[in-house]
Each structure stands twice: as structure tokens, then as C-alpha cells.
Amino acid sequence: MIAKSKIFPQHDRTKTANQLREGIEYYNPDFRQLLPEEPELIHHWRGTEWAEGPVFLSQRNAVIWSDIPNNRMLEFNLTSRETSVFKEPSNYTNGNTVDLEGRLISAQHLPHCILRTEHDGTLTVLVDRYNGKRLNSPNDVVVKSDGTIWFTDPPYGILSDREGRQRKSEISGCYVYRFDEVTGTLEIVVDSMDRPNGLAFSPGEDILYVSDTGKSENLMAFNVSSDGRYVENGREFAKVRPGTSDGFRCDVEGNLWTSAADGIQCYTAEGELIGKILIPEQRVANCCFGGPDAKTLYIAGDTSLYSIVLDIAGAQSGT
């Protein structure tokens, strides 16, 4: 069952664009159409060491996110505006999403698996091995409309004990996988990246975006095959600077909202940077759309959870 702990004090602080570290940067007039006239960045809670994997759970009206080094997950309730421990220990959970039934799907560094939390709180390990060998440390995860689960498997959870447990990799590389629970098959769909990290589908699911936080530091785009089982034509979509792209989400028009060292950057489907939401943190790791209309972007910075209301909805509000 999910263990809940003390409720933390609230730290709501609303900042207008003029009060942000640098404000909101507009590189193209189209970016103004995606934001309200007076955007407000809201700081909800501070206290994480390395925040990751936010996801909106509609049945709880809450945002769940990971604090990887502290081996816990936190919950921000949109109704009470209180933050509490959602799960501790969390097996160094990193990325989170929801499946077609609204169940929480988590990428866990320990025990190197994709985990499903059932509606009654029981836990189901969906996959933890490829050809009999342990996965590295699943990092981020997304569920396609056909129910298959796609996830990345870089080595960050096995490089040291800070985000998991140090050990040697049993697999020859770091891959993007597709898991079909109906058939029980786990297939490699991308084998050309150094350290695949964040991933998301375009609104029509004809493009898969994957960030590489390894040598290339590219945000890549791949065409998804007509049967939805594999990808092809991998190419550089964007080179995010400063820092690199980690986690990201798409809105209903196909714009991509990605984390960066300076906050959130927004790119069109053609790869044009049109604007930034600058966050007063050392870096930002991930984001998700949430709320009843999926028009609120929740942002996981180093130490804190933030949100900003947009004038556009997320393509997949739970992912």
C-alpha cells in the first residue's frame, strides 16, 4: 500500500513575469498566444534534492513527483494545496506516467523495473529484464494509446549509490524499449543513443521524441511506423542550451515544452525555439500538464515544484 506521512507546510508564492529571475522570454510572437496576458509562476513547495518525474493523477486531483536522492515521492494536492509524502522509500523512482486506466506507471532505479501501482495500492512489476538480463535503471516512461509502454534505460541508477545502487551493467548498452503487456514482449526500438533519457509522443503519435543526456546532448525525433511498433528516421530535433533537455511534454498543437538549465523552453513541431519560462533554480529536470483542463504546466526544479497556467492544453495530461 502507499505509505503517507506528515503534511509539509505550504510555500505558495506567486510571481508575475516581472518578478521572475529573468521573466518570460519571447523569441516568436506565437509564444504569446500560448500564455495568458499576465503569466504567473507559482512556487508550491521547496525541499527536494533532485526533483523529477511529475505526473497528474486525476483521481487524486494531485501531482506526484520524485525526489530521487532522498528515495521518496511527494504529492501536491490541488484542492488543499498541501504537500505530503506519497511513498517512502520509493526504490529511487524517477519518471512517472499513467496508463489508459489511470494507474500510476513508474520507472524505478531499484529494482531496475517498470512498476504499476494498482487502484487498490498494490504493486505490479511489469518488466525488469531484457533477454534474461537486468535492465540498467529505467528513467522515463510514456504510455501509447494502444496501451504499450515505452521507456528509456540509461545507467544513472547504477553509477553510484546516490540514485540507486552501484553495479555493473548486464546489458551491452542504453536503449529505448517498447513493452507490450498483452504479449509479454519487450523490444528495443532505439539503439543509437548514448544515454536516452526523457521521451514523449507527438499528439498524433507519429513522432517519438527522445533526449540524449550523454555525449551528443541532442533532443532527437523519430518517425513512428504505421503499425506503431518501431521507429525510424532518427534526426536531431533541437540542441537545448544552456544545459540539455531532460524531460518534456507536448501540447495539443504539437509544441514541445522541455526542461533546460534555465527553466522551460518551448519549441514548435518544426524545432523552432519560440520562448522560455525561466525558473529560479540551478536546473529543471521535468514537467507535466495537469489540472481539470490540462492547461497547467507543473515544473520540477532542483529543489521545488512550480506551476504556470497556459492558454493551451497538454496532448496527454497525465504524461
From TrEMBL:
Question: Per its UniProt record, what InterPro entries does this chain match?
Answer: 6-blade_b-propeller_TolB-like (IPR011042), SGL (IPR013658), SMP-30 (IPR005511), SMP-30/CGR1_Lactonase (IPR051262)
**UniProt-listed SUPFAM superfamilies:** Calcium-dependent phosphotriesterase
Q: What is its EC number?
A: 3.1.1.17
Give the residues the record marks as binding substrate. 139
Cofactor(s) listed: Zn(2+)
Q: Identify the residues that the record assigns to the SMP-30/Gluconolactonase/LRE-like region domain, covering every copy.
A: 50-300
Q: What is this protein called?
A: Gluconolactonase
Q: Which domain of life is it from?
A: Bacteria
Parts forming coiled coils: none
- Active-site residues are 246
Give me the residues that bind a divalent metal cation, please. Answer: 52, 197, 246
Q: Name one GO molecular function term.
A: metal ion binding
Keywords, comma-separated and alphabetical: Hydrolase, Metal-binding, Zinc
Q: Which Pfam families match?
A: SGL
- Residue ranges crossing the lipid bilayer per the database entry: none
Cofactor comment? Binds 1 divalent metal cation per subunit.
